[in-house]
Task: inverse folding
């Protein structure tokens, strides 16, 4: 798939730069991976990150192309979106999307990365990269009543979800260009994050600043399961979360369909108490349904059948492992603001998290998947990247080098090499 006229022209003009930058990239790749393998909880002795310039204010969000390695879009608090090609030195193009209002979230249209969606205020705007010369807006949606915190697209259908400050989630049918459903009464506070469960065509998962994780059937507009991380038994493996900070949910990420067979049907949660939690959504739903079905109906006695259901529920609870990565295993010492999976190398091998403690953690999640033992979490932290500022967002690219893109509270986007 080719770029629009302006992008194509810019790329053509910069061909001479690519060869020289390639040599520098190789050196960064070599130096940027230096770690002390004798200690898994190590801080990388990395060279200075590459800095991408072009944003006008604090960077808020970024996304990386999966099909065109090196292409990255980043947004800022003044409403600008910049398009970068990491093979080139300078920003390719800059667009004023928010009109001085912050861009809170970005996402590509699945299967067509020429289409990009951006949320600003209570509006979702859509643009075509082919029309980069004019950045003419294709469509917009104004169904949310409050500021949107995150948007996400369904990988197999035309639905887009938008989570906002009121606690509501709007499900928008992009093909029909209309509101499909409103999900409400799931959160008592701000709904900060939303993701579609790609392996369940009619389900979505949301997180909020009420510390609740809610699984929805959006076709019916009803809740399937609520998991409250504010409760002691759900919060951390030994109650070791930072007690002074509530377990607000700041971000969620789920694996793509082609990663599910390896990683499982999981959801990774970035929490305000500094914990990164990993839950198995299928186990959570199965345990919930088993407990619900095992309860005797009013006016009836418990039967042997009910006893079997109770035993099944206990068995499901035993297998329903939740992984909580906190400061006791080298995790964050302040709120975790963002999480993502690695798209480089073996997809999903690493979970990356960024936080208000000015650090990015790289967790080798594959060790836990393969070992299947919670005790192995002491060895999961592979890399710690110290930042100079708090981390707002991060994403990864499918490249072997320059594959971690970080937005902190400055207007410079940082690019690291991990692998």
Result:
């Amino acid at each position: 798939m080719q770029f629009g006229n302006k992008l194509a022209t810019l790329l053509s003009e910069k061909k001479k730069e690519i060869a020289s930058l390639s040599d520098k990239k190789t050196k960064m790749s070599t130096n940027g991976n230096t770690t002390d393998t004798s200690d898994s909880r190590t801080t990388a002795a990395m060279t200075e990150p590459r800095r991408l310039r072009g944003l006008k204010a604090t960077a808020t969000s970024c996304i990386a192309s999966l099909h065109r390695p090196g292409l990255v879009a980043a947004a800022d608090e003044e409403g600008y979106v910049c398009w970068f090609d990491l093979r080139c030195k300078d920003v390719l193009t800059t667009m004023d999307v928010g009109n001085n209002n912050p861009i809170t979230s970005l996402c590509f249209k699945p299967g067509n990365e020429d289409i990009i969606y951006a949320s600003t205020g209570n509006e979702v705007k859509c643009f075509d990269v082919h029309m980069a010369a004019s950045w003419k807006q294709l469509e917009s949606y104004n169904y949310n009543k409050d500021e949107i915190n995150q948007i996400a697209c369904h990988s197999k259908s035309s639905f887009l979800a938008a989570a906002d400050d009121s606690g509501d989630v709007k499900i928008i049918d992009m093909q029909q260009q209309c509101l499909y459903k409103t999900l409400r009464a799931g959160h008592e506070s701000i709904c900060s994050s939303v993701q579609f469960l790609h392996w369940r065509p009619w389900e979505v998962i949301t997180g909020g600043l009420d510390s609740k994780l809610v699984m929805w059937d959006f076709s019916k507009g009803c809740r399937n399961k609520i998991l409250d991380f504010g409760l002691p038994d759900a919060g951390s493996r030994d109650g070791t979360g930072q007690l002074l900070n509530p377990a607000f949910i700041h971000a969620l990420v789920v694996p793509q369909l082609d990663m599910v067979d390896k990683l499982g049907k999981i959801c990774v949660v970035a929490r305000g108490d500094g914990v990164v939690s990993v839950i198995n959504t299928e186990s959570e739903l199965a345990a919930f349904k088993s407990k619900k079905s095992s309860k005797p109906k009013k006016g009836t006695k418990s039967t042997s059948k009910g006893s079997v259901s109770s035993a099944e529920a206990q068995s499901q609870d035993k297998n329903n492992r939740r992984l909580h990565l906190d400061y006791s295993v080298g995790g964050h010492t302040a709120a975790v603001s963002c999480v993502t999976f690695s798209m480089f190398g073996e997809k999903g091998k690493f979970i990356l998290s960024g936080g208000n403690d000015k650090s990015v953690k790289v967790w080798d999640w594959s060790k836990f998947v393969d070992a299947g033992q919670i005790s192995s979490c002491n060895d999961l932290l592979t890399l710690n990247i110290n930042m100079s500022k708090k981390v707002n967002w991060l994403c990864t690219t499918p490249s072997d080098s320059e594959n971690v893109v970080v937005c902190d509270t400055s207007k410079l986007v940082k690019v690291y090499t991990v692998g």
In short: Residues 1-12, 14-40, 301-319 have pLDDT under 50 and may be disordered.
